[in-house]
Amino acid sequence: MTVLPRRDWRQERRQKILAAAAELFGANPYDSVQMRDVAARAEVGKPTLYRYFPSKEELFLEVFKSGLDRLDSEVAAILKDREQPARSLERLLEALLNALGGQVAALRMLTDDQSPVMRRWRNEFRRRRRPFVEAARTILEQGIASGEFRPVDLETVPSMLIGIVRGGLVGTDRVPRERFAAAMIDLVVHALSARTQKAAHAA
């Protein structure tokens, strides 16, 4: 007789809360999201919500960490697939945008740049950003080796790409994320293209 694994209802409930919080933080400024809103969206009582997450700050940061965990998996898949470097780079930038987009939207309206939640968000991102920088470097190296990308400074450009994503999200709050993504990817891939460099030299 086949024995089915026991469902971990606590973990399922936790994930449901995180999904509800991610939706709310992705669509609203941090200060306007209330724990009662998250509880209602997740269909749990406030006491239950506080048993899992003792404060809004902790909940927000756990949403971010979960997003970075998913980003880790996406980056690993991108590198494993070994598509054309330009396509791999597009996928990497899209994954970063999806992971950071809702978080930056929520934080953008905070007036105190040194608020505890802002500091903790930045520290968490700094702690976790190295694999994304290394993935960008690997893709750039592959593109340069294949002749698809022109030679660039591999010590600085990978970090710059991460900064473009984060800085662009902060500076384009009235532009739909899909439009920003398309413009940013077009700019980056065009700037790196060896064909663009050859055309410039020919001119």
UniProtKB/TrEMBL annotation:
Pfam family, one: TetR_N
Residue ranges flagged as DNA-binding region: 34-53
InterPro entries for the chain: Homeodomain-like_sf (IPR009057), HTH-type_TetR-like_transc_reg (IPR050109), HTH_TetR (IPR001647), Tet_transcr_reg_TetR-rel_C_sf (IPR036271), TetR_C (IPR011075)
PROSITE patterns xrefs: HTH_TETR_2 (PS50977)
SUPFAM superfamilies listed in its UniProt record: Homeodomain-like, Tetracyclin repressor-like, C-terminal domain
Keywords carried by this UniProt record: DNA-binding, Transcription, Transcription regulation
Keyword Secreted: no
Domain called HTH tetR-type: residue spans: 11-71
Protein known as: TetR/AcrR family transcriptional regulator
Organism: Dongia sedimenti
